[in-house]
Design brief:
The complex is a heterodimer of chains A (23) and B (347). Chain A has 2 helices and no strands. Chain A is mostly helical. The longest helix of chain A is centred in the C-terminal third of the chain and has 8 residues, at 13-20.
């Protein structure tokens, strides 16, 4: 898998999505 | 015969990873076995793995008798509603969870031994039109249920006494949730698959729906079994019980798909096929290994990281295999036939 296929990857995706998602 | 039909590529090292027979149990009172599983059980200061067998009206607990026998300790009789499945509760001790119902699950019950009353008993955890239920680590149970108006997703923290300590609601997606899988190594993350062929991610602590990611239309009705987070990607093991065989790819048994949760984009990582000419039923995944009963009555095992069929168990002495489940704690594979015969194999 590369970033070109999947877009920018973040190691902290869970924390970031939790901060952005509606409560 | 089935093994002879397999091409060498599918079984290129069966000696290394074949299934070794360990022990057998047979329940003569079982008219039609519906599920089999294992449970950790602590008694007299000792914790051991026990086998659980289920028929439509009874669930039995079996203790190991060295060197290779099993003795039935107790049978819970559940005559009012048929037992549909045993719901494994990873890392949980002295609790057996079962789903009961007709066409779909209508009740979830816990079966246990009460030291207070010195008796075996069962207790009701949830009722409703339940579409999916899965046991999570730390004595948690997650389920989806629906009414005419809405879908309810709920995590129940189970108590040793068979009740619930706490309940948390998860935000439902618009589509019906068909299966759940916890994300290995991330206690608060949960994934699910939907009837619209999407993978969804929740935060179990807050109940937030974090992301919905469409899988594509190639393999409809995907069911998630396990998920792993690594290097910023979410790897989900999916099976496709209703996928049709195609000439170019064969019949998919399991696929591993990598999702980027940040963008929602995905790519297939590994593809495990059914042996040629075989059809399969719903399978079971433990660690990096998948297993499924084929309609021929054999059990096939796949190495999900290598994408190949690594072992094949032909129909047993009691006839066709109807059930297969991975035992807890890496103890091996349980294969069961409808007449109540269960065999444990080391993998």
């Amino acid at each position: 898998c590369s970033e070109s296929d999947l877009g920018p990857i973040s190691l902290n995706w869970f924390e970031e999505l939790s901060a952005e998602a509606p409560p | 015969d089935l093994a002879e039909q397999l091409t060498p590529e599918l079984l290129d090292s069966p000696r290394e990873e074949s299934l070794q027979f360990v022990s057998e149990l047979k329940d003569p009172s079982c008219a039609c076995a519906v599920d089999v599983g294992t449970v950790w059980w602590a008694a007299a200061g000792c914790r051991e793995l026990r086998v659980v067998t289920a028929s439509e009206s009874a669930v039995s607990l079996w203790e190991p008798l060295p060197p290779d026998c099993w003795a039935k300790i107790h049978t819970w009789h559940l005559a009012e509603i048929p037992v549909i499945q045993i719901v494994p509760l990873p890392d949980t001790c002295n609790l057996v969870c079962v789903a009961l119902g007709e066409l779909e699950i209508g009740e979830i019950r816990l079966l246990l031994y009460s030291s207070e009353t010195d008796s075996f008993k069962h207790s009701l955890v949830k009722t409703g039109n339940i579409t999916a239920v899965v046991g999570l680590k730390d004595q948690r149970l997650v389920s989806s249920s629906r009414t005419m108006q809405e879908q309810q997703l709920e995590v129940v923290l189970l108590s040793e006494a068979g009740g619930s300590k706490d309940r948390q609601t998860l935000m439902p997606p618009e589509e019906t949730v068909t299966a759940f899988a916890e994300v290995e190594g991330m206690r608060e993350a949960l994934v699910g698959t939907t009837a619209g062929n999407s993978v969804v991610i929740w935060n179990l602590k807050t109940g937030q729906l974090l992301r919905k990611m469409h899988i594509g239309y190639s393999y409809p009705a995907s069911i998630c079994h396990r998920a792993y987070s690594d290097s910023g990607l979410l790897f989900v093991v999916l099976s496709h019980p209703h996928a049709k065989e195609s000439e170019s790819c064969g019949s998919p048994a399991f696929r591993v798909v990598a999702f980027n949760p940040r963008t929602g984009r995905s790519t297939g990582v590994m593809f495990c096929c059914l042996p040629p000419g075989c059809a399969g039923r719903r399978g079971d995944v433990w660690d990096r290994t998948g297993a499924a009963v084929l309609t021929s009555g054999a059990v096939a095992v796949w190495d999900l990281l290598r994408g190949r069929c690594s072992a094949l168990l032909p129909p047993g002495p009691a006839g066709r295999w109807a059930l297969c489940r991975w035992a807890a704690g890496g103890a091996g594979l349980l294969a069961g036939s409808h007449d109540g015969t269960v065999r444990l194999y080391r993998y």
